Amino acid sequence: MWKSRRDFEAEIIAKAWEDKNFKARLLANPKAIVEEMSGESLPKEMQVSVFEESPKKVCVVLPKNPDEELSEDELEQVAGGVGYSPEDRAGYINSVFSRL
User: Fold this and answer.
1) What is the DSSP letter of 58?
2) Three-class secondary structure of residue 57 per DSSP
3) Residue 78: predicted pLDDT
4) Phi, psi torsion values for 54, nearest 5 degrees
5) According to the model, what pLDDT value does residue 28 have?
6) In this structure, what DSSP letter does residue 70 have?
7) How many CA atoms lie within 13 A of 54 on its CB side?
């Protein structure tokens, strides 16, 4: 199992670099790959995106500000037993990764 979201992402990246078929599937349907590798079903409304960098394209991830108030949906998820890890409260996806 993975210790963190970063470990999980590192495994996905390493596999994509090694296996062109996996990379193509990851780019075509990243949510399915995350579910497959984690063994977790993600909520239907959750989106998972993968962007490939190149010499002329750099990607920056802007996580959710942990100081912002939770939405009604997020409050409902927390009340239902799904919470944010203390290490990384950037959003619901982190709680999924923290259980891996």
Assistant:
1) -
2) strand
3) 60
4) -145, 175
5) 97
6) P
7) 2
Dist. CA 70–CA 19, nearest whole Å = 38
Rounded to the nearest 5°, which phi and psi values hold at 87?
-75, -35
Q: Name the residue with higher pLDDT: 66 or 79.
A: 66
**Three-class SS string for 9-53?**
HHHHHHHHHHCHHHHHHHHHCHHHHHHHHHCCCCCCCCCCCCCCC
d(Cα 77, Cα 75) in Å, to the nearest integer?
Answer: 5
Q: Cα(57)–Cα(31) distance, rounded to whole angstroms?
A: 22
User: At which residue do the structure tokens 């780019």 appear?
Assistant: 27
SS3 94: helix
Output the pLDDT for position 100.
44
Instruction: Judge if pTM exceeds 0.85.
Output: no
pLDDT of residue 93: 54
